[in-house]
Every structure is written in C-alpha cells, then in structure tokens.
Amino acid sequence: MLRIKMYQAGNGDAFLICTDTTNILIDGGYASSFIQYIKDDLIELNSANKFLELVITTHIDSDHIGGILKFLSLNGTSTQPSIISVSNIWHNSLRSITMPIAEPLELEKNRSLLQSIHDRGHPKIQSDTDSNAEKIGAQQGSTLATLIHNGGYRWNNGDGTTSITKEGLESFAITGGMIRVLSPSQDSLKSLLSEWEKQLKKYGFKGSISSGELIDDAFEFMLEHMNDYQRKTPKPISATTRKSLHEIYKPDDSPTNKSSIATIIELNGIRILMLADAWAEDIIFSLQKLKDEGHSMIFDAIKISHHGSYHNTSPELLDLIDSPVYFISSNGNRHYHPDIETLIAIVDRPSTFPRTLYCNYATVASTELKNYQTKSEAKFSVIENACDWIAFTGNK
Q1: Which residues form the Metallo-beta-lactamase domain (predicted)?
Q2: Which residues, 6+ apart, have CB-to-CB distance to 10 below 8 Å?
C-alpha cells in the first residue's frame, strides 16, 4: 500500500508519500504550511521510528521551498535532528551546477553587490495560508543550500556538487521501488544559470560565475524574486466565451519552472507521476522515450504541473498520459490557478475508467467543474479540500 497526503499550501505544493518502508516529502509550500500541517505528520513518523528517505525540492520558488526552509531551520543537523531524520535531499543550487570558485579575487570585486542581494533575502510575500504577511526573509535568512550544507545533510546523493537531471540520474533506487527523473535536463539548468547570470550582470557583476557561499546564496535569493515577474491576468469563465485548451495553450517560458525536478515515483507496484511546475514539452520528450520502451502511460495518480496552469498541460501531453486520480494543488488566490480549461481538457477525454480530481482547496474552477457535463460522457468526480491521506493498493 501507498499513501499520499496533499497539504493545503496556499498557491504552492507540498506532498508526503508514505509506504510501510519509506517516506518521501516533495516540496513544502510556505513556512506556514509546514508549521500548520506538515510538522505534526513528521513528528508522528519520527515517533514511530521512521525517517524521511528523501526530500525533493523541485525548484527554487517561494511557494515550494518556504516550508522546506522552515523545516530545516527547525530540524537542525543531520546527525542530531530535532524533528525527523533525513537521509537525502534533492535540491539543484548553484553549487550543483557550477564549479567552486577558483579565483577569490573575482569574488572580492563583487562582494558588495552579492552582499546586498543576500541582505535583501527571501521575498516578503503575502501568505496564502493565513491573513498575515509572512516575512520569510525576516524569519529565515539562510538559503536552502546553506541550511543543507551547514546541517551536514546528504545532498543530491552526495555533497551537492552534482545536479539532479534526467541525464545524470535516469533512475534512482529507493526502499521498495525506484524514482525515474523526467526533468530537468542539463540544458535546462544551463538555461536557468544563463538567465540568472544575465540578470546578475545587469546589477553590475563582473567576471565569471562560480560556486561559493555568498554567490550561492545570491543565486537562490535572486531566483525567488525573479519568479514573480510575470503575472497572469484573470480570464472570464463564462461558458459562452470560453475557448478550449487546444485554442489557448501557450507553452510556459519560465526558466525556473523548466528547472523543476519532475519524477515518476514507483513504490509497491504503484506509479505516481509528479510533475512539479515542469514544462509540458520536456515531460512529453521523456515520457515518449519510456513509452517506446514499453512502459505504460496510465499512472495510478498524476500530480498536474504548475497548479493546473494552461501553460504547463498541453493537449499533446493529455493525449499521452492518463490516470484515474489527479492532484491539483492551488487555492487560486494569486495566479488564478487552476485554469478551468485545463480541468475540462482532463475530463473531456474518453475513458474506460472514472476519474477523480482531488483539489486541496475549493476554487472557482473546481466548483464550476463539479457541474460540468463531459463531451465524451466520461465519468468523473471532483473532491475539494482534499487534504486527508489517500491510499493506493499496488502489487500489480
């Protein structure tokens, strides 16, 4: 058996996947998500003499890593954890993508700039899990990379100097199964680094980019601030004016989302497709290769990319994959996710099995979908505020 809990993480993601033999935490939402919901479950696991075999931070974005920042700041070190033992953390940082600094003088020339970026800290965001301003920067001045390194955690299966990519880690053995890495590619991480370097040089950075504590922190802090530069405007949801996903789909262009660690989690014969905020085109490329090798594209559950945004679920992707269970994580407050066009495209496809869409909040789109009649007459149900454990039986 396998159990999944999708936490209420505002407009973010936080998932805990558990079997009798392993436990995996994927993203942590905001700091308040961890304090209000995740922490107690980890304490309960620890009290049962269990541990987290793997923590995956899919990409550097406040709505995914804020809760992990809070977790590690409270958990302390790997050898003396205050909440729960963690065996391994996946997190692609500057340390994972570049070589260590070889010329300290180059860093010294840029120290003032890097220090100012560091001092600005994390974005001061309005939490989507309570009504108060959640000042992550004031509460947690350290980056995730610093907390992992200083805590002595096993990082990217080693010391954090290698990255998690589909080329470098096509599959990874875990207790009771394996994880297949679908994204990012090495080129995706290079694109992210290039975009960040371009922004950094706009501020006056001189010289080449290498890894070091201060510049590693600047990388993470800047990416969090860069992530919100694009804002989607709300669309009218009147059925008389709505277009189909096929008509409105436009690929995501965020290099940060493209850097997402997307995976297939295979445990006890159960296959869960966890898409983070990945680009649809990258996922199609990886899955098509698996399909050509004979792997089924029907999964036990699919976590839809980027909170149901129509920029991350293409008609071509939906032609390739399906599942009786879908997870949609968003409260819809900041980015108007999920998009109703995405949800309709999921349920409109002909199917030999009923589909259940689990939403961790009731949103405008999820509520409308409950009253929707599919064109194919395929059966589906929508469960809102779905934050309890969901069990899957395997050994297929």
Answers
A1: 10-76
A2: 29, 30, 32, 33, 63, 127, 128, 129, 331, 333, 334
